[in-house]
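Lab meeting tomorrow. Look over both lines:
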Amino acid sequence: MGRTVVWSVTALVFVPAAAGCAGSAPGAKPEPKAAVVSNDADRLAKCIRLPGKTERVSWITHPLGTPDARAPGPTDYKLQGIAWLADGEATRLRGTGTWQLQSPEIPLPKELDSLLDRRGSWVRSGDLEEDGVEGSPHFLLNLDANALYFWAVNPRCQQ
């Protein structure tokens, strides 16, 4: 009878634990969730200042690294977006500062890539960026698409 009781208790302890591990290999990373695209220009303006007048914006935020709810402390996150510029703004911005050609295809997040209907070359100017300032945005300009791609890590958003 002692063995039956011990076996029953052991089964009750290990079966739920094994059930929680079903379907995932040891050390496997969980699939990242797709970011939700926001078009809220007012909310975005609380986090970064865009250098030109825009018609519309689309942006996402997502955690960097492997977020783990069990780990204490904050998680770094990245804000990325596309701003479609008002008429003449892309040309005006191109006339300010020194712009350098970037690689022809920048790796846009999949949530934003499908929103960009015209392809073209991207240029970047350090004159618009505050190097070394945590949370400051970075910008790439696309004259063909009349668009500005922006990103920032841990931007300081005002409430």
In short: The chain has one domain: 27-153. The two ends are 65 Å apart (CA to CA). Residues 57 and 83 are 4 Å apart (CA to CA).
